[in-house]
Amino acid sequence: MKQILLLILVLSFLLQVSCTKAVRYTEEEIKTYPANVQDNIRKSQIDLGMKPEQVRYAWGSPDSIKILDPFEGKAREEWMYASAGTLGVIGTKILLFYDGKLIYIK
Predict the structure, then answer these.
(1) Is residue 88 a part of any domain in this protein?
(2) What pTM was estimated for this model as a whole?
(3) I need a labelling partner for 45 at 20 to 30 A (CA). Which of 9, 36, 52, 103 fits?
(4) For residue 28, what is the DSSP state?
(5) CATH code assigned at 87
(6) 8 Å CB contact between 67 and 84
(7) What is the pLDDT of residues 63-97, one digit of tens each?
(8) Residue 77's beta-bridge partner residues?
């Protein structure tokens, strides 16, 4: 029983270590962004105020995009990212863009 549990733990660790994200941008593509946005993209992090293109560079394409009804005449989009974590636990991140800028992260 202990050997099976150890084997499962080792396999889980190896799968997580081997799953690295590919670079989704080139330095040329992000050079015109402010320094803090470039740094976030390089670290695969996002922050409020980022544009959709910048979020794609940081996190890649979302799993789904929902175009919401405009509010006060300005476009709204909801992006969802789903991820499988340790032992198959699934996490979901929801991003809301308003007028081309990230305003909400959950």
Answers:
(1) yes
(2) 0.75
(3) 9
(4) H
(5) 3.30.1450
(6) no
(7) 999 999 999 999 999 999 998 877 776 899 999 99
(8) 67, 97
